[in-house]
Amino acid sequence: MAEVFGTVASALSVAALFYNCVNCFEYIQLGRHFARDYERCQLKVDVARTRLSRWGQTVAINDDPRFDTVESEDRHVQQAKSILVEIADLFEDLQTASRRYTTRAKQEGLEHLQVQNMQPVPQKLHNRLKAIVSRRQKGTGLLQKAAWALYDEKNFRKMINEITEFTSALENLFPVKESVRRMLVEMEIEEVNDEPSLTTLQDVATNSDSVLSQVATERLEIYRGRNYVKNVQGEESAHVRVGNEWTEAALSCSLGLPGQTSNEAGSVMMKGTSAVHIGNSSTYRYTGLIVDMEQRFDYICGTRYRSVCQMFLKRMCFDALATTFAPDILPGADLNDRN
Questions:
Q1: Which CATH architecture best describes the domain 2-178?
Q2: Which residue among 148, 158, 171, 328 is least crowded, i.e. fewest CB within 10 A of its CB?
Q3: Which UniProt keywords apply (predicted)?
Q4: CA 132, CA 188: separation in Å to the nearest integer?
């Protein structure tokens, strides 16, 4: 239990105390009062946990013997232990407040939100950050803990703000080059390669993890590109959409753009029920060999969009490729028809 952890924290080594502090995040749930902003709040918790685990990696907490003793003579190690004890005390205080709430709240007010009900983008980010932390946690928690919930926004803000301050204090105690932190962050999000996911990370990390937010911002500049139309004239129910489009299937596969793009139109005139989309439309990823229809035959790319269709295959007359890798988008297609 977290309250037991807070009581015995001072008797642990810095490494053991650190492992348990990081593990405490695993048992935090959010109550139904967070439903409107649940995904964003859960990711804020994930970002705070990831940043704390990153500090442990920068100081080699798994390998440095200074962190493996209960009573260290190193002044910086002693200060680090004091900060980690404060983190343990914070979790204990928050759980005490949670327990008080449960004694007076109605049953429906005690319902917890579930990670499995998150939308594809935040759920994949949550799973990604959780996996990063798990790989870093070579040590295991020494104490048994039970899940508990935060029910009000005030305590949630308190937790995020204080964890952020404590982590900053730990980083200041053992300073490393900014390039080292950036390298670790880039490794954390190396598989995050779509615009919606990067935008979400940029947002949730803004006030709690400046390095993560900055790296996400820089990566966004690569993927956003430019979508522009100068003049639009429409009649009846015709409409135009300017911007990139991501379907749920594409987001669940972390489908990313191959690079910066530019989609422009000088004038658009529409009538009736016509529709125009100026931008990239990313739908889903195929498995197997992928060929880009706009490039020469020997150019192979790793991602396929729905727009990759029979046009390329018609021009190349590459029947085997059509049959093997794209039968689902070429029903009844005549590959000898070059019209």
A1: Up-down Bundle (1.20)
A2: 328
A3: Amyloid, Prion
A4: 7
